[in-house]
Amino acid sequence: MINRRDSRDIPAEAEREVLSTYSLRDTDLLGSGTESKTYILDDKHVLKIYADPGQRAALEILQDFYDRLGHPDATWVLPHIDSITEHGELLAVVERRIPGQPMEHYCLTTGPEIEQLYLETVRDLGRTTITPPLDRRLLLPSPAEPPAGTDWHGFLTRTLESKLPPLLPVLQESVSGFEARAGGLLRHFALPYTGFETVIHGDLYPGNILMTDRETVSGIIDFGTFTMIGDPLYDLACACSFYRMYEPDHAEVRTRLLATAAGDLDGDRRRDLHAYVLVNALLTCDLYPEPDRPIERTGHFQWAVEILAADTHWQAVGGRR
Predict the structure, then answer these.
(1) Rounded distance between C-alpha atoms, residue 230 and residue 151, angstroms
(2) Are the C-beta atoms of 302 and 321 separated by less than 8 Å?
(3) Integer angstrom CA distances of residue 11 from 17, 18, 41, 65
(4) Per residue in 250-298, pLDDT tens?
(5) Stated pTM of the model
(6) What angle do CA 298, 279, 205 make, to 5 degrees?
(7) CATH fold for domain 101-317
(8) 7-96 sits in which CATH class?
């Protein structure tokens, strides 16, 4: 579960003082996200106002992280943080302004072209490098993170083993044969991972991909809480799950995207792809609580259970390789 003050907690008077410092007005508001409000500062920069000064350490990690990212021939750009300043109870962050609108604006009605561009962009992000490399799996350090040096499969196994026990009763009620299936999933990751590793965004859905028109991706944004180092196929699996994830056609679209994503993969990598879909559903199922509702009745938990209760992914993963 994620607990932090969000943009709704920004006091109006404190916000006005920050805007005055940067010679901005209410009309310069570009948008409001979960954690911050974003204002147009100038042609090349935006100002983000955060309600929680406690996020400064995380933002400084992000600032350093963005400075270390590279891509051999990307046609889109990644974020860059110029400055982080405390203003009383608020944080003001100046970032690179990336032109465009979120891809979700262009996929209100989906189609083969936008879906193909989406998958190509996710694959292309998987070629991003970080120099020097991180000395840990998670970008933002966590007390629950496995020891340094844990390989990718070991990291997933330990994270799942830590996550599952408190959720086991409700998952057993919601997913037929869940305990045995979860055991099979853990066995899938029993052997050490020896493949290519790079940056995993972890929350790569159309809202975090910017476009200047229906054919041109201009940037990828909002790395952070779910960003880690590992198999780039994980991002591709998550992206297939996140596209139109709460729309009525989400299951049909997910099946179609996974089939496309698996087209050039061998049997083992196809199993990995579907295993990652299951892992992501398990790791995120309880992250978005809703007031006065048990977790099993929340929208995101039901989305995750719909994935976990279907036979498709479990059958695709099959037995241990």
Answers:
(1) 9
(2) no
(3) 10, 11, 20, 30
(4) 999 999 999 999 999 999 999 999 999 999 999 999 998 899 999 999 9
(5) 0.93
(6) 70
(7) Aminoglycoside 3'-phosphotransferase; Chain: A, domain 2 (3.90.1200)
(8) alpha beta
